[in-house]
Write a structure and sequence with these properties.
Number of domains: 3
Structural class: alpha+beta
Number of helices: 10
Distance between the termini: 37 Å
Radius of gyration: 23 Å
Order of helices and strands: HEHHEEEEEEHEHEEEEHEEHEEEHEHHEE
Helix content: 25-40%
Number of strands: 20
Length: 305
């Protein structure tokens, strides 16, 4: 359910056809609607019409005479479109952000304040262990879009925080560009959630992400509870995405148990990777820093500090 909500937040338009979301996951869509995280938002009057045996996107219009949405086909016949096929919904960002930050003591406006229309909002402040003062919180979406990223970069340049600022985002961690403005911590919501099935952000996980140096660590290697952070020697490595973090959790569980060697195929399967991802290099993508502490040979893999 939460995965679908974050995907909906990343959509270009704020209004989405409920029928399109149902095609992704009917149960998750219905659960989001029941939780009021998705609310009605008029119609998206576009349908796939069938004319001359070819699918063609057509605009559905309202007929006051026939009291229905529909379109005229090539023969001039009125084709009625069911209301539920074009009914639209949108994310209730006020409620979604309140659920994300429910575990924090915070000061907030009655509704998130738009900073860039439909893309960036100011949410208020939270108390975070390690911070000298309440930490300002923003939320941004679609940061993988170069145009949106440029707007955010310009905005944080004009509005620098006194100490730090946390910018939560629906954009997956691996798609968030690096910013030179280091007092801004841009973090995917799923990467700091206390439970992958819930929106609520963990204060402990978020605190470890923002203030990694204040976390008591074992040497020469240690990690945050969710394995989003790995400390190896004097380096702090950040890992985003549920599958990468689950893969690391599996390897570290074996490491701490004293039986560190596992089969690569079994680890990838347990972490939820599909058949196309058949190696650790594919699982970690372009980055290579993981190879400093994860070793592999002859179909086996293990952590070696």
């Amino acid at each position: 359910m939460i995965d679908l909500l974050l995907r909906a937040m990343e959509a270009r338009s704020m209004s989405l056809q409920a029928s399109a979301l149902h095609q992704v996951s009917r149960s998750a869509t219905d659960a989001l609607i029941a939780a009021k995280l998705l609310v009605p938002s008029g119609h998206v009057p576009v349908v796939a019409g069938m004319d001359d045996y070819e699918d063609e996107p057509l605009e559905a219009t309202w007929s006051a005479e026939l009291k229905s949405f529909g379109y005229h086909d090539s023969a001039g016949r009125w084709i009625k479109v069911a209301h539920e096929d074009i009914a639209a919904c949108r994310v209730d960002y006020g409620l979604a952000l309140a659920k994300m930050l429910v575990a924090f003591e915070r000061a907030r406006p009655s509704r998130p304040t738009p900073l860039v229309t439909d893309l960036v909002w100011e949410v208020g402040t939270i108390k975070l262990v390690g911070a000298k003062a309440p930490v300002p919180i923003w939320f941004a979406r679609r940061l993988g879009d170069p145009g949106v990223w440029a707007q955010l970069e310009a905005l944080i340049g004009r509005k620098p925080p006194q100490e730090i600022r946390i910018i939560l985002t629906s954009t997956p961690g691996e798609r968030i560009p690096a910013t030179a403005q280091k007092r801004n911590h841009i973090i995917n919501v799923a990467d700091v959630a206390g439970d992958p099935a819930k929106l609520a952000i963990s204060p402990q996980v978020l605190g470890a992400r923002v203030f990694p140096g204040q976390v008591q660590r074992r040497f020469p290697i240690d990690h945050s509870d969710d394995c989003g952070l790995v400390w190896h020697g004097d380096k702090t490595l950040t890992f985003g995405g549920d599958k990468q973090r689950l893969l690391l959790q599996i390897l570290f569980a074996a490491y701490w148990s004293g039986s560190p060697v596992l089969r690569v195929a079994a680890v990838l399967e347990e972490a939820g990777y599909g058949g196309q991802v058949n190696s650790l290099k594919k699982a970690f993508g372009r980055r290579e820093d993981w190879q400093a502490f994860i070793k592999f040979d002859d179909g086996n893999c293990w952590i070696e500090a």
